[in-house]
Amino acid sequence: LGLNKINPAALQRQQDLAARLMHAGVNVVNLQAPLQTAATQGADKQTVYYRSDTHWNQTGAQIAAQYMQSN
After folding, report:
1. Of 27, 29, 34, 40, nearest to 62 (Cα)?
2. CA torsion angle for 64, 27, 71, 50 (degrees, to 10)?
3. Most buried of 17, 21, 35, 70, CB within 10 angstroms?
4. Integer Cα distance of 44 and 11 in angstroms
């Protein structure tokens, strides 16, 4: 599953859930942008998910950790 194949309904559910959580005072980290940037831009486009499912691979986890550490 690639980041360029985002299901619009799933994205809407994610955004709705994030909005409800933030409204309830829960901090929400949106990692879509940094993961999508790594997967789709630059000469070194990176695979950030395992090809067989929707879990991050080691590269995706590292990108997520670096993003959370810097924000």
Report:
1. 34
2. 10
3. 35
4. 26
3-class secondary-structure state, position 31: coil
Other residues' Cβ atoms within 10 Å of the Cβ of residue 50:
13
Place of tokens 């360029």: 4
The DSSP output letter for 43 is: T
Distance CA 18, CA 11 (A): 11
At residue 21, the pLDDT reads 97
Q: 45 pLDDT exceeds 50?
A: yes
With CA atoms as reference, report the closest residue to 46 among 61, 31, 25. Answer: 61
Length reported for the chain: 71
